[in-house]
Input
Amino acid sequence: MARTRDAEQSGAARRGQILAAAMTLFAENGYRGTSLAAVATAAGITRSGVLHHFASKEALLSAVLAERDQQAFDAVEVDREYEGPAVHRALDIVDDLAERNRADPELTRMSHLALFGSADAPDMAHEWSNERIRTYRDNLAGVFEQSAAAGEIRADVDAEAAALLLVGALTGLTELWLRDDSLDMVASVRMLTDLLRRDLTQQAGE
Output
């Protein structure tokens, strides 16, 4: 039993090493510029060792993208309890994600490879990116709708437009920052969320 548990822990640790190596190489060299052999070398194992955990390079990229999102959402504590209007918590998360993007450019570049690297990333990565953006936008729109129904924000707010504005701003500003890291992407995102906090609650009793 102990041996089985040790083997599971060893396998999980090795898988983590592979993901970390792949994340770095994909971010630095792109998908097509990264080979499984290079990932294996960076992880300190053989190519067959990588394939033992991931059946293909595409499967590895899929796992890396999922890990990227998990790390980002864990870092900003998406599921933690909060007080006050739900829309304020949603805007706080947008601010936190901008901070997280700046703090870890490697992870950020990884996700934007899928979003903007059309000549490099496989179809699976574009599908992942489109679904991720769609889900994020829908979740934000749902929060705006619920907050409006609860009287926490103005009733005339266009939830879909507000959600699209936030997702577009965070995505676009992050891409600009990846191209020129002298730009203060975090300050720009915070300016937008502060404006929304004031405007959305202006006629809702706050």
Observations:
- The mean pLDDT is 85.
- Residues 35 and 57 are 8 Å apart (CA to CA).
- The first helix runs from residue 2 to 29.
